[in-house]
Design goal:
By secondary structure, this protein is of the alpha+beta class. It has 3 helices and 5 strands; from the N terminus they run αααβββββ.
Length: about 160
């Protein structure tokens, strides 16, 4: 039973270690992709150790205790790995990418002279975004516009919105 408790304690210690210094050692406890993260390993070890200890205390059967510990470890480890994977893959949909802005509408906030740069403001993915803008003709501040082309990461070509 002591062996199970030590394995469980190692799992908890690994989890605490990765939470406290995980950013400093970014990637050290990661192996085999996002599903097999340090959190998944810590969850597996903790559940295996403490689940096996509980089963052994109840039954005094080592084979049954190892089996229950493995099942508990696999369930908790897989759950922790899946949650870790979902957290790492999510959130990108709200980032503004200039390449996705063609066709977006907005307003001129700094007049665009003919052949020069001005500024436009648009709302993209819920973010108010200010970009440098060029136009075929001069556009005054407050003019509604549509983005027709991307010139660079911070500059677009616009035309008056009709």
């Amino acid at each position: 039973m002591i062996t199970f408790l030590v394995i469980g304690a190692v799992g908890i210690a690994l989890l605490l270690f990765s939470l406290i210094v995980g950013d400093l050692l970014d990637g050290l406890l990661e192996f085999g992709g996002d599903l097999f993260s340090g959190a998944a390993l810590a969850g597996f070890l903790g559940a295996f150790g403490f689940g096996g200890a509980l089963a052994y205390d109840s039954s005094d059967n080592m084979v049954l205790s190892i089996g229950i510990g493995l099942v508990a470890g696999l369930v908790v480890g897989a759950g922790a790995g899946w949650i870790s994977w979902k957290l790492k893959e999510g959130g990108d949909e709200s980032n503004v990418r200039t390449g996705d802005l063609t066709g977006a509408t907005g307003t001129v906030i700094s007049a665009i002279p003919e052949g020069g740069l001005g500024e436009v403001s648009i709302v993209a993915s819920g973010h108010i975004t200010k970009l440098n803008a060029r136009s075929a003709g001069a556009l005054a501040a407050g003019t509604p516009i549509t983005i027709t082309a991307i010139l660079s990461a911070t500059s677009v070509l616009v035309e008056r919105r009709v």
